Amino acid sequence: MKVEAKLEFQTSTAPKTGADLLIDLLIKEGVETIFGYPGGAVLPIYDAIYRARGSINHVLFRHEQGMIHAAEGYARITGKPGVVIGTSGPGATNLVTGITDAMMDSLPLVVFTGQVARSVIGTDAFQEADVMAITTPITKHNYQVQSVADLPRIVKEAFHIASTGRPGPVLVDVPKDISSEVLSMVPEEVSIHLPGYQPTYKPNPLQIRKLAEALPKAKKPVILAGAGVLHSQASAELTTFAEKHHIPVVTTLLGLGTFPADSPLSLGMGGMHGTYTANMALYESDLLINFGARFDDRLTGNLKHFAPFAKVAHIDIDPAEIGKNVPTQIPIVADAKVALTQLLDEAVASPECAEWHEKLTQYKKDFPLWYKLDSSGMSPQWLVEAIHKVTKGEAIVATDVGQHQMWAAQYYTFNKPHRWITSGGLGTMGFGFPAAIGAQMAAPDATVVAIVGDAGFQMTLQELSVIYERNLPVKIIIVNNGALGMVRQWQELQYENRISESILQTQPDFVKLAESYGIRGAKIDNQEDLVASLPELMAYDGPVLIDCRVLQKEKVFPMIAPGKGLHEMIGVKPQ
Amino acid sequence: MKRIISLTVQDRSGVLNRVTGVLQRRQFNIASISVGPTETEGVSKMTLVVDVEDEQRLEQVTKQLNKQIDVLKVSDITDKAIVVRELALIKVASSAQLRGEINGIIDPFRAMIIDVSKDSLAVQITGRPDKIDALIELLRPYGIKEIARTGLTAFQRGHQPQGNELSATYLLK
Question: Is residue B125 a part of any domain in this protein?
Fold first, then answer.
């Protein structure tokens, strides 16, 4: 039973302020949803939101971390900037984790923070924090508004910077005296001029030709597809290119779904917990074509052993990524879609590599992903496969960070892009559930599943209020092993089984917890019950929390131990 | 190795913070930094002298600096034909009797005395960092009370010789 407070709205006769202008500018930018939390320094902005109700949708979260992860989930699905409003001081510092997460995973966000009035900035005023200094290293760009007249330009630039080139978070710090200033006149619209920001979309034709010439000479080519392919909406072009030239494809963790997992050319995910075949393909390759991946250390393993025999071509919109970790012979600064389109247009000869395909097929056959069923309880890998089956592989899946994240990446195979939301670079616990909320807002008709761990879920579970209030049918599946599973796994493998502070001795009753928020809850601890009830739970028209008890000792395999190379995977065969 | 990096930046609040932040994050040691306005209103020039381990890290930091929205241009001008200057103020302990002697030392450096007190005098010198270092060494025996240096500023000469006939690397020890 939903308890709703009756709100009566009154008509405002107050004069227009800087805050009204800000909200008008957001509406003009096409913003439909604001992820926000009010507070002292943003009272004028919330007054403007009150007066603009009906034209813009504000969603009140219960913690700033929750709302910014929701904005990230929203941005991941829509490709449009997630818009966040938080107050000064603690409101802003609570946003820091999400801003950093978005920076690492290149998600477009425009974050507005309130700030104390300009007259008291620098005096350690109540709820004052130096947000500009704090967020400088974790934003693509940040602004502090110094005059109402600058607002139109700053807002326009913020959206432009956040969503073009390599996307990322932009923060706009709005002092309270600016947002409450009564407008004497509406500042004129300005066109933006950013001479220091001119992202390169078109590749250098010379480099494209170099790649076109290298391709037919390759005997062991492989494509690595990262999230850059998602940002440029280039999955179709990538698939056509790979199929046309018959090149096998490895995806990164964030790149899952860029290439259909059911294609015979798909080798699966590469990296620390990737497939043996994907990692051996990267290791043995003589031509590695990277589209929009940043050669993260969790992908490369020990750099000494990363693609040691390969000529490397790297297509990235961010020139700073090229050559950062891996020496690159064919650097191509470009948007992935533009580069792929040019490669498809050019008369490029295909490589002859039947032997290579045979070898990879053999690897696939000899070293598939594996896990063992255990009669004593539910295997987490099996659970992910069961979710895949019930949702027909069509759900949007958001995860937290840790073992469940890796199992979801391994066993929820994606055939289509923009269905996978995970915190890759920063590895933020507490990300998955709120990110799923944002995704559900972006795609109201989609099945959205939050696959989370029992520990990470407890970091942002207060947002259960939001899915209840908005009746967002997010399905929360807690892969509950009563532990910080990945920490426990590393302690077992790397620290001689000294299990230090990674077992959760007590837990709430998650079903009752859900119910106290007005949400349906269920607890399942065996396979039979799951098979019997999951279809109905997933079909339920409303949010559901399912506490799935899984085997605590289960480990994520195969894996590349820290400091080891791609070819040194352990746990490749059932043990 | 020390390198001279020249940046033109938009004169906006926070830009210095962004630039030094990039260098700090990637663990570059800044030997000196100087900032000032340029011929264009709203555009400033920064000259950085940084300690870099290798070419790859130098390239990386140059690219990271270039990525900053308010950074217009980044160039490593160490190997170009450049004009390099630094200004230093040196306060030397000196009685009235020693003044003439010190004058004799600083004269060939085209430095000058800009302040005199009962027991000290202040020398101003402009030039390449190695020239300033040399003068400081010569003045040290008299007792140096204080040194203030601006850090190096530089730009490319009007004419760039072809090839590598002139390198500024020698300026930086």
Answer: yes
